[in-house]
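Quick one, probably user error.
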């Protein structure tokens, strides 16, 4: 089997499309796209965020934020939130047609158009490594992506960032049952 080497790259797949949303000190919502993040403890999320982002400044001031998962319906909006800086554009969310509702759990906006959101508080941030660690307070899911009261990944049509070709892909096909299918080898 032939293989191609890419060298040391941050290519953990799938890379989630995480939309981090905050309020500034005047109550204005802001959001950015971040791909380098994941679960680091049962109720802890870790994300790599540079200190120069307006969103980073906001969440360090407020100590709260939300994380929504990008979806197929809003690929262009997700990408825009990653290529435009809140330091340069006052209301990025409105510019791309996204609306927010204030979270009931934390002082941060939930982006209405994204079906899954995590509401978080800041645990720690290291500006040298750009690692943000956050406590997950709640995960809220829009009823439109539920089937029989349970989350349905195929309805949510969440996307992943694929860094080899700078592309977005939909996640969704179910191929097995976790903690069960491997039992055939016992």
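Nope, works fine. Designed sequence:
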């Amino acid at each position: 089997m032939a293989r191609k080497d890419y060298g040391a790259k941050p290519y953990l797949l799938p890379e989630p499309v995480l939309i981090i949303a905050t309020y500034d000190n005047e109550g204005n919502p802001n959001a950015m796209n971040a791909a380098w993040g994941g679960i680091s403890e049962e109720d802890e999320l870790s994300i790599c965020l540079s200190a120069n982002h307006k969103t980073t400044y906001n969440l360090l001031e407020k100590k709260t934020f939300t994380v929504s998962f990008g979806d197929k319906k809003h690929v262009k909006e997700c990408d825009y939130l990653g290529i435009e800086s809140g330091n340069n554009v006052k209301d990025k969310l409105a510019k791309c047609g996204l609306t927010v509702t204030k979270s009931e759990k934390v002082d941060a906006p939930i982006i209405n158009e994204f079906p899954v959101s995590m509401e978080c508080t800041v645990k720690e941030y290291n500006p040298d490594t750009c690692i943000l660690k956050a406590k997950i307070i709640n995960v809220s899911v829009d009823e439109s992506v539920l089937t029989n009261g349970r989350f349905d990944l195929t309805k949510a049509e969440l996307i992943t960032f694929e860094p080899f070709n700078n592309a977005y892909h939909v996640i969704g096909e179910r191929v097995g049952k976790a903690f069960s299918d491997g039992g055939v080898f016992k």
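The first strand starts at residue 15 and ends at 16.
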